[in-house]
Design a protein that fits this description.
Oligomer: single chain
Strand content: 5-15%
Number of helices: 8
Strand order of the largest sheet: 2-1-3-5-4
Bound molecules: uracil
Helix content: 40-55%
Largest sheet: 5 strands, mixed
Structural class: alpha/beta
C-alpha cells in the first residue's frame, strides 16, 4: 500500500498515455486522507492544468457554491478526477486515457477509504458505475459497491450550460448531505 504522497509523486511523473505531452501540471486531487466523501470529476480543464488543483475554474466555483449550500467545505471532502492530465481543448478523455489513468484513482480510493463516492457527470459515472450509465435517468440513485455508497449527479459544467439541471443537482447534494449525517451519527 502506498502513502498518498508517494502515490502523488508517482502520478506526477506519469507518461502512461499521450496526455502527458500537452499537460502543464498533473492534477492529482486534494483533500484530507480521512475525509469520508470523495467527489470524482472527469479531468482537468485549463485552470486546473495551470494550477495543478482540481475544480478551480468556473465549474469549480459553482462546485464550491454547491458544497456550501449543503454546509460542506472543500476541507471536508476529497476531490479527484478520472484523468489527471488535461485533455487538449477540454475534449472528453478517450477511453484508453481513462483506462490508463483509473488505476491511480483506484489507489486513491483505497488510501482515502471514503464511505461516499460522488460521480460528477457521465464520464465519471461511466468509469465508476456502469459503462452505459445515463446521467439524466440514473442520477440521484444510490448504488452500493462493496463498502462504498455511490451516487452520480450532473457535472457543474453541465449545470452552467443548462440551468434547468440545477434543481436536480440540488436534490442530489441534499441526499449526499443526509447520508453523510446519518453515517456521522452512527
Ligand atoms: N472539470 C472536471 O471534471 N474536473 C476538474 O478538476 C475541473 C473541471
Amino acid at each position: 500500500m502506498y502513502e498518498l504522497n508517494e502515490l502523488e509523486t508517482i502520478v506526477k511523473k506519469c507518461h502512461g498515455c499521450p496526455l502527458f505531452k500537452t499537460r502543464t501540471n498533473v492534477v492529482f486531487g486534494e483533500g484530507k486522507e480521512e475525509n469520508q466523501i470523495m467527489f470524482i470529476g472527469e479531468g482537468p480543464g485549463y485552470h486546473e492544468d495551470q494550477t495543478g488543483r482540481p475544480f478551480v475554474g468556473r465549474a469549480g466555483e459553482l462546485f464550491d457554491r454547491m458544497l456550501d449550500a449543503v454546509d460542506l467545505t472543500r476541507e471536508e471532502v476529497y476531490i479527484a478526477n478520472i484523468v489527471k492530465c488535461r485533455p487538449p481543448n477540454n475534449r472528453n478523455p478517450f477511453e484508453e486515457e481513462c483506462r490508463s489513468c483509473i488505476e491511480f484513482l483506484r489507489w486513491q480510493v483505497k488510501i482515502i477509504n471514503p464511505d461516499i463516492l460522488v460521480c460528477l457527470g457521465s464520464v465519471s459515472a461511466r468509469n465508476i458505475l456502469q459503462s452505459d450509465f445515463k446521467i439524466t435517468k440514473n442520477r440521484g440513485v444510490w448504488y452500493k459497491k462493496g463498502k462504498f455508497n455511490i451516487i452520480a449527479t450532473y457535472h457543474p459544467a453541465a449545470i452552467l450550460r443548462d440551468e434547468k439541471k440545477k434543481k436536480a443537482a440540488w436534490e442530489d447534494f441534499k441526499s449526499i448531505r443526509n447520508l453523510y449525517d446519518s453515517m456521522k451519527n452512527k
